[in-house]
## 1
Amino acid sequence: MGGFEMTSNSASTFVRFKGVEKSYDGLKTVVKRLDLDVFRGEFLTLLGPSGSGKTTSLMMLAGFETPTQGHIFLDGNAIENVPAHRRGIGMVFQNYALFPHMSVTENMAFPLQVRGMGRHEIEARVKKALEMVRLGDLAKRFPAQLSGGQQQRIALARALIFEPKLVLMDEPLGALDKQLREQMQLEIRRLHRELGLTVVFVTHDQAEALTLSDRIAIFNDGVIQQIDTPQALYERPANAFVATFMGDTNVLPGVLTSLNTQQCQVRLDLGEQMFARATPGLTSGNRTSLSIRSERVILDGDERYDSRLPGFIEECIYLGDHVRIRLNVSGNNDFNVKVPIAQMQPHWREGHRLPVCWHSADASALDAMSA
């Protein structure tokens, strides 16, 4: 297996990608110099748009794709030359991958039979796994007799039944409706915590990643843009791509006019001078993007807010618990504010002018080159 071992200073690291690249045609590199550690017992989500390299990275870890370059370690051993079925990894797919001609019990028993396990041990494990996902009463049914959520729970239990070292999930909830997705998210969180699993999860759904993850790695164009806790990614994005991909943010272009370690000043393109938190990689005099989350913006705020710009309401959209108000602010006619229903004012209608306000500490100046 190459004779590679991880160094002693990474004892908590369970999975490591080291200098991993992948190209299918020798021309375009879909994963570029990937260096990534997954810690034992961690729930790590690979998040990004279609074609960003997240699923390819998961498939290389699973053994369904081979790296063009670099090494992948599992529990200290290089595995890029180990066949998928010998890696001891559980997999959960979006399409469930259940055998339609087998009952739930037979589907669950199959991976144990392949490993040569005895009948009594198989029966005990199947019963335990079905109880784990609360579906013990459906053991004799076939996949076609189950709902989408039930099928996915069976697929999850089947991936866990042989007690794998690592569980990989590739968009496992993508085929479910919103309510079922949210129920399954809670189920996956429960199992992760109760069983102490190490999970690598792929999704393009930002809310799902925020709900489930200990850490999130955001991919774009084959490169991790930032890896951190959900709160840190949302509150302190490293660049404009992360800010706009993670949640709803407003971006106002400008030039960085002054900079220190904590705060900087930005001159927007229409001349307004604004203050914001500084982020790494900024240089005074360069182009920047002022980023402010839509829920941090206050309409017609008082003097407590040190940042203020005139706004013109273009559109109001009712969304149940809040109203999404789209304004023209400093030349950006797609500046959005989320207003809770209880705070909505009768005169806030299309065509109305009013100031938009926020605390400068809630705004970030980001590297415009990464947008």
Note: Residues 1-11 have pLDDT under 50 and may be disordered.
## 2
Amino acid sequence: MGFTDKTVIVTGASNGIGRGVAKGFAESGASVVLADMDEQEGRLYAEELKNNEHEAMFVKTDVRKEADIKHLMDVTLKTYKSIDILINNAGKALFKPLYDLTIEEWDDMMHTNLRSVFLCSQAAAASMRKNEMGGAIINLASTRAIMSEPDSESYAATKGGIKALTHALAASLGKEKITVNSISPGWIETGDYDSLRAEDHQQHFSNRVGKPEDIARACLYFTATENDFVTGADLIIDGGMTRKMMYEE
């Protein structure tokens, strides 16, 4: 799978899963645009990638703002001349009792996690449709789109919306040679992996908690030109946790 001639935008790339995905594409030869609100961490990481002889740049972006998204696309096109791959990773979590959740908090979650996916996909696809080989979009959903715990209404709603939006976009953009897929991560540890307990790992069929690079490898698969037969799909990457019986003996 070759990415040396590809330009990739990763939203929410300064930290966590987005950071790991950006690294995966950079190490595979792509030009990577890191988009995030965390300017300090984002610029430092872009410099780190460049110091390792990868092509990368940072663009400060608030995905809740349509003007910021337009600026992100414009800067990317000005610098790299094309947009080939978009990873809609930016998002936030909110767990708050139902009766305490305000409409302002609900709207902020919708704008951050869900509306941003629509706006970024719409803007990137307008450029991708001009490419000879089309393009690819990946949306980061969650296993919480299909299972829940208390106080997760706003987060679950956005992730369920992302899954539905993914197959709708795949239907609309297929004629433009643009594939659209989603990934639903389970427990992906983005902090101190070594501090996890044995029982944390044993919750999974895989006998380990996930890492950002597990998601990065899936992104590389979905966006490889030769895998254009895969579109409208959602890939659960959770070490089998959502298939594990939780009944106590």
Note: The first helix runs from residue 16 to 27.
## 3
Amino acid sequence: MAHNSENPTAHDIRVGKDLLELVSSAMYVEPLTAYREYLQNAADSIDDARRRGLLANDEPGRVEITLDQGSRIVRIRDNGVAIPRAEVVDRLLALGGSSKRGTEARGFRGVGRLAALGYAQYLSFRSRAQGEDVVTEVTWDGRRLRAALADSDSGDLAAVVAAVVDVRAVPARDEPSRFFEVEIGRIVRQRGDRLLAPDAVESYLAQVAPVPFASEFRHAAAIADALRAAGPLGELEVTIDGGAPITRPHRDVVNLGASATEIGELTLIELPGMHGGLAGLGWFAHHDYKGAIPASALVKGVRVRVGNIQVGDHTILEQIFPESRFNSWAVGEVHIFDRRIVPNGRRDQFETNAHYANLVNQLSPIGRDVARRCRTSSMLRSKLRAFELARKDAAERLAIIEQGATSDRARAAEIGRVGQAIGRMRKAMDADAIDEGLHDEMSATVALVEAELARVGGSATIDPLDMIAEDKREAYRQMFNLIYECSANRVAAKSLVDRIIQRLA
């Protein structure tokens, strides 16, 4: 049976203005993600400048960030290829129509450039391509945009964009011969004022941006060499207000708050793709796994990077561990090279497909290994605590025995308890987590305790009460027995008994 139908034409399709709200504020709930979007574009532009010979291989790709708290303005300038004047309008006003799709570029959806507009009164893009004598400016007016979005009578997407965007060309003066700059203007005040807080911006970019490792990280060269073998790192020299270039947060020592842990062994793992080739490369820096790493250390959890830019946060690969809590103990990254493993629009997770599932499945053995290390470390710490508590118990009781102030019966009981403490020390030594060197140290400690027990328990001690009448000594001994029996602190109890004996003397 035939059905009559009329297919829509391009004239029937209307793209609503609310798409602008989606790409300028609704997609980006964390203000600092705007920096990621602009550095991602800068990295692509710098790569392009190298391919065209505009940037020498030994010349760093630079991104200079200026935070003007007084004027509440942020400027982000790079020395990439820039956009020629003839292409500026087409490229900067195309929403969801990036020319990067299908290329090696990091971004390809064409929506990230408006990431900061929801936090500012205006957003300007300035470009000067090589050989041009003007700077082309494209400015989005955030106030006009918000008014248009609230106006039910305003037009469709194209009409609203035309109404809120200004384009002009100004003579180039002191600017570099080639640059692209983003200006986030008159930033609205928010809790924490994170877009303008230098420490917050640097901490974020140290984790997310394609900046180099610090020299204080012993595995920096090994990791960089392994990654370069798979493709260019695309590292950037990123500065804030002319300060020192930002480096990654990894160091040899990780601060755990009350203690610290030192990075030791490094594991590198290649992750093949489903149909050949390299899907990704992971590195994992092992330490003594004393506990969960605090967020303030900036290296907590296994991170994922595409184009050397972090996707999501430290929780993105929790599923590779038998228990998600072990991810908080881990330090490592997975760099994705397979173009079929694609970040989602907000770059906080990946699109679900077989290639991503294959990658995650290959990481599960690493997750189990880290979990095993965590459990082994926990068991070792538990055994060492038990050993130390038993050693301390034995030492305190040996001091009481040597003091000789208690009755013979109490003395015999203390000798027996020291023997029990030695037994607990030996039991704590019996664990697979204790290596040979540590076992030898613990054995030596046990031998010292046994020798001390033989010394103070096997020979008669000088009676500390010999200065008082013999018929009163037993009463004092019973009192001393009660002091030890009723005290929760044997060291304090012994100190009290010592003082009483001194007074009696």
Note: The first strand starts at residue 61 and ends at 68.
## 4
Amino acid sequence: MIRNVLTIAGSDPSGGAGVQADLKAFAANGVYGLAAITALTAQNTQGVSGVELIAPSFVKAQIAAVFADVRIDAVKVGMIATSEIAVAVAQALSNHQDIPIVLDPVMVAKGGAPLLQDDAMEALRVSLLPLATVLTPNLPEAARLLNRREAATRDAMAAHARDLSDLGPNVTLVKGGHLNGDQSPDVLWDGIHLHWFEAARMQTRNTHGTGCSLSSAIAAQLAKGLVPSAAVAAAKQYISGAIAAADLLTVGRGNGPVHHFYSLWKEKT
């Protein structure tokens, strides 16, 4: 049976991040993707130039319409932008906590543009973190959620993962892409054990949408029945391949997207 996975996130017209990246990652990981839009952005590989928010009631209506008709096997939540949208999403998902929910707390675009209003942080903590099966912050996002200094060591990453899980998520994956050095480790705390996922840092600027794509791949693998540690391992392998092949694409003049379909598209030039 082919699984169905819903993304609740913002739109990226350049196709590298947001729901466009989510749907590509879903397809590449063998599941059928659906999408509820929280915000429209005007952006390309060089940055975000505008954001138009969707009314919270309409975000909620999109989610309700999907659940009323389609069996959903997992949900990925990305850009929520405002406290009102956070609450609307939480209300819409409150009756569906029997399925995996992956929360990627999108706060800043690759080019530095803010994608989460300051007053939305508390709503994110209170309304959405307790619903999450897997929380997937990067180092700056983890620090902001905890009101702490950004982790600069593996020990600090592990501490952040443990403490974030105390806020409600079943499992927390802290991503180490912002660490200095030639390694890009991620750490998963499942409430009992720490799991480290190692990867060498790849020399490419084409990493737009990496976080969106990783969290979507995790949601896809959870929908297919993997436990969180195995789902993260499979998703990490997928995203590493997508980053390694990113330079095969020629999309834009800034931070280009990862190659979501590197294992499916055979043409190399």
Note: The first strand starts at residue 4 and ends at 11.
